[in-house]
Specification:
The complex is a heterodimer. By secondary structure, chain A is mostly helical. Chain A has one domain. Helix content of chain A is 68%, strand content 2%. Chain A contains 16 helices and 4 strands. In chain A, the strands form 2 sheets. A two-stranded antiparallel ribbon of chain A has the order 1-2. A two-stranded antiparallel sheet of chain A has the order 3-4. In chain A, strand 3 and strand 4 form a beta hairpin. In chain A, helix 4 runs parallel beside helix 11. The longest helix of chain A has 29 residues. Chain B has 2 domains: 164 residues, Rossmann fold, CATH 3.40.50.300; 74 residues, no CATH class. Helices cover 39% and strands 24% of the residues of chain B. Chain B has 10 helices and 10 strands. Chain B starts with a strand and ends with a helix. Classes of the chains: A mainly alpha, B alpha/beta.
Amino acid sequence: MTRTFLARNPSVLWFLLLLSLFTLGVTLLSEAYGLALISTSFIKTLGKTLCLCLAALAMDLIWGYAGILSLGHMAFFALGGYMIGMWLMYARTEAIVITALSNEALPATAQEIQNGIAAQIFGVVGASELPGVWVFAHSLPLQLLLVVLVPGLLALIFGWLAFRSRVTGVYLSILTQAMTLALALYLFQNDSGLRGNNGLSGLQNIPGLDAVSQDRISVWFLWASAAALGLGYLLVAWVVSGKFGSVIRAIRDDEARVRFLGYSVEGYKLFVFTLTAIIAAIAGALYYPQAGIINPAELAPIASIYLAVWVAIGGRGRLYGAVIGAALVSLLSSWFTGGRAPSLNLGFYTVNWVDWWLILLGLTFVCVTLFAPKGIGGLFDLWQGLRHPDRKGAALGPDDGALLEKEAKE
Amino acid sequence: MTQLLEVSGVSVTFDGFRAINNLSFSIGPAELRAIIGPNGAGKTTFMDIVTGKTRPDEGRVLWGSRLQSLLSMSEAQIARAGVGRKFQRPTVFEDQTVADNLMMALKAARGPLAVLFWSPKVADHARVAALAAEVGLGDALARKSGELSHGQKQWLEIGMLLAQEPQLLLVDEPAAGMTLAEREHTTRLLVDLARTRAVVVVEHDMEFVRRLNCKVTVLHEGSVLAEGSLDHVTRNPQVIDVYLGRSER
């Protein structure tokens, strides 16, 4: 009982080992540092996938462990991306403007530079003033702080309002959908201060690293994403391993009973909601510099639903399940929709995967929900011969209980 | 003697139905009390009010020597103040082990941050093991509680209540679904507990109430009909009329 955290959770060690091997392997096959067998764009895809895995980890914590089906976590992911995107765009534009103004006879004043940046960034939406939300955009540390603070505060306020009123189940899911949709619609407006539907672009160009080629930067981001995923995995595994994990799983299973044990259910939900929002935001802040562009469509409700689908297919309630689901489904998704998957010729009809992928995904989701509620992660249980008691069953009589016990020993 | 819990003039209405009607009830700090009454007498609603699940329309519920009002507190706050509740159906967390269930109930700080950074000490493990042994689950610590039999789940829930160290225990039909030997064990345990804290038992089974050998409160249509020893209340003609006499007629 007094063994160390890693000894009690061997899967954490396995996960970190596999993640390191994966990162090392990709680095050795990359164009910048190895055999050049993997293209830079694919390395970016892999790096982005790691970020999605981190977001799925957050989703698993809130859905699989705490039982709150939030369908709005990609809003926090995108907000994290917007926050880092503001600095990337500002700093890069600043460099361009300074270069352009250096040809003038008189050295440019700070105001001239500021005006130049504003005109460059906001010309596309017909404005030339830097909006108030960009006030910290000149500073990387401040903007990094906002990556955590803005989504964290939004989650705190939204969660406080929702949980305090004891909104649960499907109603909470609908509320979170409404939140992400409302945020997307707001950001679509040109006067939202974040360039409306143009979004922020050119994020792959890291200010100050002009001399470094993209094939190197892509590997650096892969390392950063892998490190974030590893640390996130450790954090979430630690959170769910102790009594806190016990309490949130208890809230998932019977929240009224948890109240009578003296735990304030609302406080725990709010804590988990905010923590997962921050994890998702950090994942987003690493994702969008690799994607290069962010626009309000990233906050569409469907994005958060995908997140739930990944976790369901991977197996909710276990951390590696969420990671496997997110990695597998998002990579398959980009393969099928990227036009590289060979079309299936049925003679009378040719299945074009770009059109049919969503249907395949939907069918998979339905099948997993119906026939394998534990998802891909459930395969590990089969392999280890583990059985879990059915939580949904009615109370067993003494005889049935004895029978179950015998089965469990086998 | 000052009372531990004092409920006075409490009424509650559900959609026009008066479930509790001007109910007054009090219990001392170390007392065993049985509440009996026909179906719909308001026994469960009474427990819901004390534990904060239901808010009464009027009346007062005062707690402890400082006469704290329970009406302005949430369920969790009331539980932390020292009111424990055992439900009729055993409600344990079936996906978790017996040890986890007990550890969660163990008296300790309940805030999210305190719990996050909490780790069990040797004394906590010992306490969990002792509690499990006390309720006959000493060998089942590592088992998922979903695998336990109905009776064992009842015992686990009682163990969780003990782990909370409440000053007032509300127990809803503890003997339901138990074998004769288990009932005797339960009786002994409840009588034992009532030496150091207040215990309120809601029960249908008169035989079980007789064995508890304590003061009895009879509820009828949401208010107290009679109070006293079991022999005293069973001689009360009104009680015979509304409750006891019914089946014999």
